[in-house]
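--- STAGE predict ---
source: upstream dedup step, 1 unique chain passed
mode: sequence only
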Amino acid sequence: MGERNRQAIENEPMIPTAYLSTPDSYRAMPDDELVVRVNRRKRDLGARAIILAHHYQRRAVVALGDYQGDSYALCKLGAQSAAEYIIFCGVHFMAESAVILSRPEQKVFLPNPLAGCPMADMAPIDSVLGAWDELKQLLPSTATVPIAYMNSAADLKAFCGANNGLICTSSNADKAFAWGFERGEKLFFFPDEHLGRNTANKLGIARDQIYVWNSNERAQNRDSEAVKRARVIVWKGYCHVHSVFRAEHVRQMRDLHPGIKIVVHPECTEDVVALADSVGSTNHIVNYVSQQPAGSTIAIGTELNLIDRLAHQYTDRKILELAGQTCAMCVNMYRTTLADLAYTLDNVDTLKPMSVPAEIAANARVALERMLAVGG
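--- STAGE serialize ---
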């Protein structure tokens, strides 16, 4: 990676730098007043501002967004827009990615700077750099290609860019893996074990050629022969929402609702994925539900706010949360409130926008551009 790159990554604090929390005066406003305030401010700003709302945001926030979608699609929309101000209603890594892809004159704001991603945090850059050094010692003559999921911090994306790797989304992970195998013997995928394993399974990679890298394990205790045998090394990380779903939930739904269709996200465990009727990204899930006929019963294995919104949108279909009453909700997505959005819009001219150090942004952009070339 280069000592300069390493020091830049290790020395830069990758923490929210947007601004302090929303004032109590905004939090005290009733929702209807906040909606009026947001709409008025949107009219005032016109094309200067764009509001991007991730699929997992609460319904009231999504309703005020100019666009809704998954993280990468929204980042592209922001960068391609004429807007000076990009307000990203999502979590920290999404706003970082929007900064990386944005033009110099654009400013990106995260309405709630405390909205993070526990899965992204499971692959801190110092641990990844340590693992990379250990891999080079174990496999000194083996070409290993790093691949980071879009749901990762900017410094991890930069690591991939600096080490001949790339980024992937949940919809093009198989193409990213194929790209990697054209350039190396092994793939090192992070931070989500389940997306990595499900993608390897989809490509027919043998079970004993998939190795789960536990960064908490001591090097001397690692099964070096298993690492050498593996074609895909996946980081031991997970999404706490999608890990809620179990194979028994699928079987129970089929028992209770004969003819039910089940669609899940590939961050779910491999046994859940194997039993589902369809597997794909948040956009895939939205499209799958839209294509089912009236009267259908559909159980969805993903974040609760998206399921709730789809149930309200398609009232002629019975839409259920796959795990029943477990409340598979991303609390970080839920952090963003109408008050946060209103405060951000009212103060875009004075608030400090999100930022990513220039060298990290440059290397991360390289990895993202490689993903663009892969397509999907």
